[in-house]
Every structure is written in C-alpha cells, then in structure tokens.
Amino acid sequence: MNYVASALVAQLDAETRMRLRSAATAIAVLAMFAIAFTYIPDPSSNRVSISWEHDGKLMSGLYTSSYIGWVVGMLTSMLLPFVGFYLVTGSVKRDIERRIWPIVGATPTPRIAYLAGKLLSSFAYLMLLAAISLIPATFLFFRYGHGPFRPVDMITPWLLLVPPSLLFTAAMALLFDVTPGLRGRGGYVVWFFAWTMLFFMIPGQLAGLLDKDRKELENPAFDPAGIVMVEKAVQQTIASRPKSLNLGIGIVSRPIQRIDFPGVPVTAELAALRGAQGLWSVGVLALATVVFPLGAARSARRFSRRRKNGDELREATAEPSLGDIHVRLVTRESRPSFARSVLADVQLLWQTASWLKWPMAGASLLTLVLPARGSSACTAIVLILSAIVISEAAAREALAGTSSLVFAQPGVPRSTVAWKAASVSVFVLAILLSTLTRAALAGPDRFAAIVLGAVFVVSASVGLGWLTQGGKFFSALFTAVWYVAVQGQLDFTGVFAIVPDLTLCASFAGAGLLVLGIAWAQERRRAR
Amino acid sequence: MLQIEELTKRYSGGTTALDSFSLELGTGVLGLLGPNGAGKTTLMSIIATVLRPTSGSIRWKGEDALARPDLIRRVLGYLPQDFGVYERLTATEFLCYLGRLKGLSGRGLRDGVAEMLDLVNLRPAASRPLAGFSGGMRQRVGIAQALLGNPEIVIVDEPTVGLDPEERVRFRNLLSELAHGRIVILSTHIVSDLEAVADRIAVIRQGRLVRIATPGELLSHAAGRVFRVVVDADRLAQVQKAVAVSSISRKADGVHVRFVAESPTIPGATAIEPTLEDAYLLTNLEAA
Q: Hey, are the CB atoms on B98 and A409 less than 8 Å from each other?
C-alpha cells in the first residue's frame, strides 16, 4: 500500500508540475476566464444562457447566487469535458513514446496505481480550470446580481454538477490514451461523438427526456454532466416539465421573463446520486488497466506480420547483421525543388493515412456518382477523414523527431508553413476533386463555396497545427464545426445548406487564412 | 573545401554553445572529441544548415553557405545524434521519402534506395514497418539515408550508438572507405572509433577549438606524461583527488591506476605508452 500511495502522490506531483509549466495551461486558464464571462450575460440584453419555454413565455432565472451557481456549474459540466479531454489526454502515450514507461514499469509501482495517478492528476487539472470560472461568476453577481451574495448557495450546485463530470472526463481521456486506435488522431475525432453520446444522449434516453408526455423524469444511473438534474431543477421551479429547455448561450428575439430559481433541494440522496456517478469513472479506470498492457506492448514494438510456424517467425523477425560493407556509391541525377518536396510530402500524407485512406478515397469517388443527398453524405465523410489525416501535417517533423533529417534536405523550403500549406492544399484538392467537379457543374456559387471551404480546412489545419505543434486543437475545433455544418448551419462548404452562404464561407476562409498568416509571421520572427 | 570562420552560437537562455569557432576541412575524416555540452552537436547542426549561427560564416568551395544553405544541402549526408522515424512507413518508403526530398526520382531513386539497403544489409527487413525495428536497425536506416545520393560531405553524430561491437568495426571501415574524396565529420565519445578512422581530431571544449591534430601528434604530445601506479584500495580516493585518472582496474596485487600529469607525482608511478584517451584527457587538463 505504501507503493500505491507514494506512486499516486508522485504521479500527481510530476503531472501537475509539467502541466503548470506548459504554455497550454496559461492559454487554457485565460480562455476559461474569458469564456466564463459569457456564461452570465447582461440580463437586460437579448442573450441568455439557460432558458425554457412555459405557458408560451420564454423564461430564465433571476441572477441569485444559487442560479449563477447552477448556470456556471451546468455549462462547465457540459462543455469543459469536450475541450478538457484534449488538454489531458496523451500523457500515457507520451510516457510510452518517450520511453519513460519502461523506467516506471521497472519500479514496484502497480500498474493500476500508475494509471490512477494519471487519472487523479488529470481530474485535479480539470477541476483547477473549472474553478477559474467561479471568479468571473462572482464578479458578475456583484454586477448583475439579485439579492444577497450567498457563496454556499453558489458553490453547492457547482459542486454537485462539476466534479463527477470532470472525473468521468479524466477517466475517458485515460481510456482513450491506453487504447490502440483511440490514442491518436482518430481518437480526437471519435471523442466528439463519444462526448455527445455519453454526456447527453444516453442520460437523456435513460431519464426519458425525449418523452415529452412523461410527467416525472427518472434519475438515471448514468448522468455524468447532471443534465437531468438541471431539467428537474427547472421542473421544480415551474411546477411542471418545460416545453423546451435550452442549455447553452443563445441570442433570443423575445422578451425573457426572469423568475426566482430555487433549484433542486440538496438532499443526502441527491449528493449520493451524484457521488455514485464517480463509480463509472472507477469502472473506466478498471477497463483502462486491462487494456493498458496490450497497448503498451504494441506501441513499444510492433511487427507487421505474424507467421504460424515458430521457425518462420524467428526467421522473419531475426535482425540481419550489418555485414561486411563495401562502399560503391553511385552518383545519381538529383533535382531538388520546392515542387518535388511538396509532392513528397503529399505522398507521405497518403502513406501515413493508414487504413483511413480507403474509405476516404471511396467516399470521394462516390461523391461523383451518387444523387445529391448521398453525395453530400460522402463529402461529409471525406471532410472529417481528411481532417484526421492532415491534422498533424504541419507538426509532423516535431512530433516524430525527424526535423534534423528532413530540414537538412535540399528540396525543403525555408518556410515550413509555406511548404505544409502547399502540400496540404494539393492533398485536399485531390481528395475533394469529385466534390469540386460536382459543385462546378451545379453552378458558380456552389463551386466558390467549396473552394472557400477547402481554403478554410487547409489554412486552419496548417496554421493551428504549426502554432500548437500538434493536431489536437485543430481536430477538436474542426470536428465541432463540421458537426454543426453537416446539420446545415454554419456550412463553410456550401455542400450541406440548401443555398450556399458565400459570405459565411468567405468568413471561414478568412479566419483560416488569418491563423495561417499568424503562423507564418511567427515562423519568420523565430527565424530572425 | 569547407571553411568555418568565427562561428558563434548563443542560445536565448544566455548559453554560448560555440564561441568564435574556426576550422578548415578538406577530404578525409575529421573527428570531433569533447565532453557533453562542448558544442559538437551544435557545430554539426550548423554545418548541416539545420541550425543558424549567431555570427560567423561557412563557405563551401568559396561560396557563402549560410546565405545559400542549399549549396551544402545538395552535397550533404547528415546523420544526427538523435532522430525519429515515421513508424508506420517501411524502411523502403522512409528512404524513398527522404530521397525525394533530396531530388531523386524514378529509377534513380529506386536504385539508390536499393543500393543503400544492401549497403547496410537491411534488404531482408526493407518491407517491415519501422515501428518493428530495433535501435540498431533504425541507426542503420539513418546511415543509409545519410549516404543516399552519394554526398560529398558526410556528417555523422554518434553514429555507432546502438550498434554491437562487430557492427561498430564494420561501420568504422565504412567511414574509412567513404573518406576517399569526401569530407567526413565524425563526432563520438568512443575514442577508439576515432583512433581507427580519423585523419585529424579536433578537441572541443566549452564551444572552443582547443586543439586540432592528427592522432599521432596527440599521442606524441602525451608521450612521457602518462603513468601507472599500483595502490591499496584505501589510498584510491586520495590518488583520485591528487591526479587526473584515466582508468582504474582492480587486480590481485592492488588497484592499478592510470593517470596523466606533467611528472610522476605519485611515489612508485612509472611512465607508460599513452593511448588516445590519455592524450584527450591531457589536452582537456591543459585547456582547463
């Protein structure tokens, strides 16, 4: 047990130090601080964060200490898991790839203690970020608040909602981190869908949220974000189920009736129910402990083929010796150029796309032949898969440790940003060729829209990838934008909306180019 | 001819990795010897155009290579000390990728890659993903990519790391053969590697060139300054404090201590034939 306790403390200490020394933490803290101000909009404005419909009226709560606690708690427990996952996942992968795991694995530390330490340190980090949001909340209470300031009333709903949500997020980040296939680029995209399922759809289904005829909601056994608890809180306030409940920041055109929002009485039963959500995290930790050795062994050494015959296996995997070397080098014609280096990088993008390349290519071809709806669906698939493939292109050399090899080559231009922008452009244009052809046949507006959409995808991936030296940020951002776009809103490609909005597409393209421009300027500044 | 003049590199934290370093290199093997942090890797990275110096110049055949890095890149084969690979690619694919960046294409690229795989005897493993390669095999891939395209300048930073003793010998032989008509810059901690292949050895310390000489000249300089004494185990600590010890071996008759000094300061010490390691230690002592 001593080993376990000291391993937990050691892990917590090391991870906390590393994270606090990272620039990403400073950015995350500032971002949380800024975003928290949007949670509590000016009550005299047409912006609202939680609202519901009842008796034909649009309602929201008076800004009491309790209501502000509910709002901040709800929005944090819903939204921080999506972003927080990307901030905390990857520490096990890092330990394996940088060969720290073999050192840790040779200590008496049990595997579960190592992973539990990772889980607790991620949880602590997310809680720190979540706690930041209480500072603007308190400030905004004093600005817009109603009634006396009661800190206990503010913090109680926050404590009920936030910790179980973030503990579950930390556990899922750990599970993804140890699972082959989920620990990389693919996992970054899969998380978006997992988040919507685990935090919204499954709890809603279990509680009967979608059943509008149901008078009483169940207390679901699984509800990490506590969305059912919020609906019940609204139900208590208006003494019936609301016609609709909007959890999120929105702009409304109707007047808002603000009423006293007492929330849900905090009973021992409720506290136990929320605490019990933590058991799901324990279950995920247990699963991660089972999966971990499989992933660690696979990452440390992988073989491409397995043979049935043991002798063949030994022969196939035996390391050939260097042998006697007789040097006879032949000079071959070489014409290094920017174009060749771009094509080499495009080819590398294709090669490193692994199995993703086949559904991506298949969907791209089908775009030409399927009718409109099918074609749009295929374009959606092409976009999300190509985003996974290109997300790390700009940071590939830094992530793989090949910078010294690659940037000593004559064909590679001085500007990495320019090089990657060119190669990713060629790749994206090639993979979207079918969509572009179809759009060109549909009319100039559709064609212009998809071209602008491609500009956004290329520039955002390269710019964000280079600035953050990784693919997580772009993957997270693009997946969220893509999800909204395929619903027909914020369609940056003009493919999914009934009528393409060229202004919107140009705005996205402009934003992407701005990020790319920042990356390029930063690169030039560093080169000096 | 590669001319390095007054090369200086200062990092943003204030560390001076190279300090007014000057050197002229012709064909043959130049060995770089120095302690950790001496500036060897920084020097190699700058010559390889991966790092930019704070000041100074590098000229290749009379032309400014810092202003036009491609002058060197086109004739360069570089094996860095620590490098990664793309694990999902096979050895062939990885070499082809780097070959394309070097400007090779078509048949020339395919034949060049095949030639390199044969050279480092990795043809049996050529179709395996690099993820399954041992450290030594990855090092050989690194050697292969450095020699792809028949470079005129070969820079190898700790190239024998990960190779077993037999392979180290074979690689040293490779470097010796390569040196005909080429500039080879070799950095290593393994003094015996330099002894076997280097035409000249540059000793670097704290970013400065301390001495440049042939192995024979270094050994001549050390002659009469290397001694051996046999002491009891309880006197060892005292001896270590008094002189610069190059090796210690415990034998039946006591602890045999080999040390460098201007004179045999320990009673009972006798002069012995110096090795290159002794000569390096002496050079460092004189520079300190």
A: yes
